[in-house]
Each structure stands twice: as C-alpha cells, then as structure tokens.
Amino acid sequence: MRFYIETERTHLLACDTEIMEALLNGNAAIRNLLNLNVPDHWTEFGEREFGYVKERLKESDEKNWWTYLSILKDGNVLIGSGGYHGKPDENGKVEIGYETAQEFRGRGFAQEMAKALIRHALTFPDVVTIQAHTLAEENASVSVLRKCGMEFVEEISDPEAGSVWCWQLKK
Questions:
Q1: Domain of 125?
Q2: d(C-alpha 55, C-alpha 81), whole Å
Q3: The pTM is what?
C-alpha cells in the first residue's frame, strides 16, 4: 500500500524499495511503475542519493523518514522529490531536503513540499526540531525555509558542499 502526504497541488509519495529501484533504472522505469508523466530532467539528486535510500529501506521498511516524490495532481507529473535524511535522532531532530524540477521552479512548489514535510514530521511526538541546510548565500531555498518559519542557526562547513547555513524550526 502506497503512502502519500497530500498538499493543495501535489501528492508526496513515500518511496519504498520498488520505487527506489525504478528511480535507479531511469525515467522510463519510474514512468512505467507509477504511470506518471516524467520530465527528462526532473531531479538533480540522482543515483548516489537514491542508491543510499534504497539501501536504508532494505535495512528497515520505515519509509516515512526517507524520500518522497512530488507529483503534480494536474497532469500526474513528477515535478521533484524531497523528504527526510532518516528517522529523528535521539534529541528529536529530523532534517528535511527538497528539490523541484527547473521547469516548475518559482511557482511555490518547493515551499508547499517543505511545509508538508514539516507538518508531517511534527505529527510524531518524538520530533521536536526540524532542520535543513542551504548553501551559505541568499537563494531560493533560503526564501522557502524562511516562509516555512525556519530560522537561521549557524554557518557550518560541509565536506562536500563547503560553507552551508543551518536552519531550524522547533516544535
């Protein structure tokens, strides 16, 4: 049975191992499995991230805390993905991330997705903090997080991305 988080304009579909396998096999595989319209360049996350999540789902079928596909209700179009970086930690902190396909940016879909992920996480009693990271610069993601009520916490150094800003929202 598939699990969705509903937003005004999208369905956020929780990925299981079958969906992650299709994502790793390309757009035609995900199109065929879920009967979606799939733009050529809908994701920037790609194989590394999808492979990581697939392995985590094999360890535990706890799909609430991993990847969601953002599917536009109007036209059944895959427009991005997002989700969590795993279950809440021992302090009740969970991290969100999201992406929207280039052709769908600037229309509020990222904000809609981020708000839905935050709202969903906060339904769990053990979640007390939602966290996100952005590049250390003013950009669209920073605007999205501010509109979601998140506050800047600190600048940190990430081994892969360099300087990043940490954002949080407390319950």
A1: 4-170
A2: 18
A3: 0.95
Query: Rounded to an integer, what distance in angstroms lies between the CA atom of residue 120 and that of residue 77?
Result: 22
Residue 132 corresponds to which tokens in the numbers above?
A: 């996100």
Cα three-residue angle 161-165-167, rounded to 5 degrees: 130
Residues 79-116 have pLDDT tens digits of: 999 999 999 999 999 999 999 999 999 999 999 999 99
Confidence label for 61 from pLDDT (cuts 50, 70 and 90): low
- By the 8 A CB rule, do 24 and 47 touch? yes
How many angstroms separate the CA atoms of 25 and 124, rounded?
33
E-only strand ranges, the chain: 4-6, 10-14, 67-72, 77-84, 93-100, 129-135, 151-158, 162-170
Longest dimension (CA), the chain: 43
State phi, psi for 106 to the nearest 5 degrees: 80, 10
Number of H helices, E strands in the chain: 5, 8
In the chain, the amino acid numbered 67 is T
Structural domains counted in the chain: 1
Cβ proximity of 61 and 42 under 8 Å = no
Question: Residue 125 sits in a domain of what CATH number?
Answer: 3.40.630.30
